[in-house]
Design a protein that fits this description.
Radius of gyration: 27 Å
Distance between the termini: 21 Å
Strand order of the largest sheet: 4-5-6-7
Number of strands: 7
Helix content: 40-55%
Strand content: 15-25%
Number of helices: 7
Order of helices and strands: HHHEEEHHEEEEHH
Largest sheet: 4 strands, antiparallel
């Protein structure tokens, strides 16, 4: 039993070190504020409220104004859509120049983190500081992710034994890890009880 306990301890040494180091990282949380900071679309006061059709199947409506002008966002059973406030026809995709204007307006006062726009591919934007920004046109939201975000996400993966990137394999590793921890504790408990009993008889 001592040998099993010893080998299990050696086997679990790497996960234990990983859990301990990443646990300290989560407690201190260095760089979290920048890595996960929100990046809202800059909004302006509405000039007017659109007259909406009486008959519609909308579950929710949002009207807002950005540097591009007025926006009408509606939620249906299929999800969110952006409609023209004048014609109520769905606006499928903004132009590259519209994306540039919208993002530049959002990052204008955050130059240290974002720098300038380096490239735009559809609704994906990369900045000169290598931060990736994604535009959700239907909901008029922006999501940012930089190298610091990638690093922290990797730390999470290490902590939760998501080491291979294959969900099924990682789930099996996680279950095995927990099983070995319980087994290690159980064997240690049994050995301690036996040791105490032996010491009483001597």
């Amino acid at each position: 039993m001592k040998k099993i306990h010893k080998y299990l301890g050696l086997l679990m040494l790497l996960p234990f070190i990983a859990w301990a180091v990443t646990g300290v990282f989560f407690f201190i949380k260095p760089g979290y504020s920048d890595a996960y900071q929100s990046l809202p679309v800059k909004l302006y006061p509405l000039n007017k409220v659109s007259n909406l059709p009486v008959e519609n199947q909308w579950l929710e409506v949002r009207q807002l104004r950005s540097v591009l002008g007025e926006h009408l966002l509606v939620k249906t059973a299929e999800g969110w859509q952006q409609l023209s406030p004048q014609t109520f026809i769905e606006l499928k995709q903004p132009t590259t120049e519209q994306v540039r204007q919208l993002v530049n307006d959002a990052i204008n006062d955050k130059h240290i983190r974002y720098g300038n726009i380096a490239s735009i591919t559809n609704l994906a934007i990369t900045t000169s500081t290598e931060v990736r920004i994604n535009l959700n046109w239907q909901q008029m939201t922006l999501r940012q992710q930089g190298k610091d975000t990638d690093f922290i996400n990797s730390v999470y993966d290490i902590h939760y034994l998501r080491w291979t990137g294959i969900k099924t394999v990682d789930e099996v590793l996680g279950m095995l890890g927990l099983f070995f921890v319980v087994l290690l504790a159980a064997i240690g408990t049994v050995m301690t009880i036996k040791s105490k009993r032996n010491s009483k008889h001597t």
